[in-house]
Write a structure and sequence with these properties.
This protein is mainly α. Helix content is about 60%, strand content about 0%. It has a two-stranded parallel ribbon. Its main location: cytoplasm.
C-alpha cells in the first residue's frame, strides 16, 4: 500500500492546468495574451512581483496609446522627448531590480559564509576536544606510572629500613611456614625461581594410566561385564491409538540426556 501510494499518488500524476485553444479576432489584442509567458509554477499563481509586472505592462500600453502621431515636427520632438523619459524610467527600474537582486545574493552569501564559519568552528571545537581528551589520557597514564613508581620506592625504602644497620639475620623457619606470602610458599622470580619450569612437578603420575603395560594390566583386572553393555530401550508412553504424546517424547529425551 505504501509503495502504491508513493508511485501513483495524485501529486506525481498531476499535470499543468488545462489551457484551451483560442482564436484572436482580427483587429483586437487581448490583454491576457501579454501574460502568455507565465506558466504554472513559473509566475502562476500570480504573486506580488507578477502583479507589479502586470501593472507595468498596463502602464506601458497606456503610454504607447498616449504617444502623439509623427505627422509634424513638433509632435515628433514631443514623441522623442516622451520616449527618452520612458527610457530613463526603464533604466531606473532596471537598476532598482539589479539592486534588489544584489541584496538577495548578498544575503545568501552572508548565510553561506555564516554556515561555513559555524561548521568550521564545530570542526575546530571537535579537534580541540579530541586533543584535550588525548592530553587527559596521557596525563592520567603518567600519574598512574608515578603512583606505581612511588609505591615501589616506598616498598623498597620500607624493606631497607627494616635492616638499617645491615646486620645479618637468622632465618626464622616457623615464621616463613606460618606466612603463606613468604619465600617458602611464593618465591619471587627475581631471585631465580620460575614456577613454569617445573609445572609438571605436582602432576599425578600413575603407572596404570601412563604406560602401555599398566593399561594392559588394568584391562585384565576389569570384569567382562564392563565391556558388554546392556541398554534397555524405554517403553514409549503411547495411547490406545498408538500415538505418543509430547510429554512422553520429552521424558524419553530427558532420560537419554541424563544417562
Amino acid at each position: 500500500t505504501l509503495g502504491t501510494q508513493t508511485d501513483y499518488r495524485d501529486g506525481e500524476a498531476q499535470t499543468d492546468p488545462y489551457s484551451p485553444e483560442y482564436v484572436v479576432p482580427s483587429g483586437s489584442v487581448p490583454e491576457i495574451l501579454t501574460l502568455a509567458a507565465l506558466t504554472w509554477g513559473r509566475g502562476l499563481p500570480a504573486g506580488q512581483a507578477e502583479m507589479e509586472i502586470i501593472d507595468r505592462i498596463r502602464e506601458k500600453r497606456a503610454w504607447e496609446a498616449a504617444l502623439p502621431p509623427m505627422d509634424s515636427p513638433s509632435n515628433m520632438a514631443k514623441r522623442l522627448k516622451m520616449m527618452e523619459a520612458m527610457e530613463r524610467k526603464e533604466w531606473a527600474y532596471r537598476e532598482e531590480e539589479i539592486d534588489k537582486l544584489q541584496k538577495v545574493q548578498l544575503e545568501v552569501f552572508k548565510k553561506l559564509l555564516q554556515r561555513r564559519e559555524e561548521n568550521q568552528n564545530e570542526l575546530v571545537a571537535m579537534r580541540l576536544y579530541n586533543q584535550w581528551q588525548n592530553h587527559q589520557k596521557a596525563k592520567e597514564e603518567k600519574m598512574r606510572k608515578v603512583q606505581r613508581d612511588c609505591a615501589l620506592m616506598l616498598r623498597k625504602l620500607i624493606a631497607k629500613r627494616k635492616n638499617l644497620m645491615g646486620k645479618l639475620e637468622r632465618r626464622d623457619i616457623i615464621k616463613e611456614y606460618s606466612d603463606f606470602s613468604s619465600q617458602t610458599y611464593a618465591p619471587l622470580s627475581r631471585i631465580g625461581f620460575f614456577p613454569d619450569n617445573n609445572s609438571d612437578y605436582y602432576a599425578a603420575k600413575n603407572f596404570y594410566l601412563n604406560t602401555f603395560a599398566g593399561l594392559c594390566e588394568l584391562e585384565k583386572s576389569v570384569r567382562d561385564s564392563v565391556f558388554h553393555l546392556k541398554i534397555k530401550a524405554p517403553k514409549p508412553k503411547c495411547t490406545k491409538t498408538g500415538y505418543i504424546k509430547k510429554s512422553g517424547r520429552l521424558d524419553a529425551v530427558l532420560a537419554q540426556v541424563h544417562q
